[in-house]
Design brief:
Elements: E1 2-6, H1 17-25, E2 28-31, H2 43-50, E3 54-56, H3 59-63, H4 67-75, E4 78-82, H5 90-101, E5 106-109, H6 114-122, E6 133-135, H7 138-141, H8 146-157, E7 162-166, E8 168-169, E9 174-175, H9 178-186, E10 192-197, E11 205-210, H10 211-214, E12 224-228, H11 234-244
Parallel strand pairs: 1-4, 1-5, 2-3, 2-4, 6-7
Antiparallel strand pairs: 7-12, 8-9, 10-11, 10-12
Length: 252
Amino acid sequence: MLSFIGLGLYDERSITLQGRDALRDADRAFAEFYTSRLVGTTVDALEETHGIDIEVRDRAGVERDPEPILDAASGGHAAFLTAGDTMISTTHVDLRTRADERGIETRVIHGTTAQTAASSLTGLQNYRFGKATTLPFEETRGGVPDSVLATIGENRERDLHTLVYLDIDAESERYMTGDTAAGLLADHLDAVGVVVGQAGSDDPTVRADRLGALAGESFGPPLHLLVIPGDLHPLERESLRTFGGAPADALE
């Protein structure tokens, strides 16, 4: 058996009860934190809380050398852990497919995702989000990729919101911040942005304003997300004022 378990968004408490029970039942546990990570905890704390040793695998250890995971699942019950919801990355779909090809039973135990948290915290209606995109560090692509601007532009033309995931350098534990992302996009867009920070924690951050204004602010520790809204429903506009501190003139 191979159980894919989403750990949720922030710390060792963010896992669902179903996920906790499955993890405690596992014979071995593997995890990856290159896609995202729980910034409110450590692997040691996860191990202590759930009573199991966790082997952290890098990208190569999941994508190119999955045999230790599959062997453990073939001979017993293995858990594969990620932050958020475990099947958001196609890497993990590939791992599940490989397990099925070997006749290994699999199951998926979901966790809270960044997208649903962004909608819930900002008050932007979930069904009005279009295609999401990821903004890489400036040096990675020499600036903002055309594909990012195209995705935002196409969504805005359809009055849809855009969730912008911010780049993570897992090896150096470097995380793009909301102010950096807003500054990069402000050079190309005259638009409102909404920064969400520390989603899943007891004290998350939500801040809405013009991108240029957000570029000069600080939003606390990672992880951060950025939302570029489309045309706002009156209730969404009120939510951004109330919960995001948006100036009235920024939302006109």
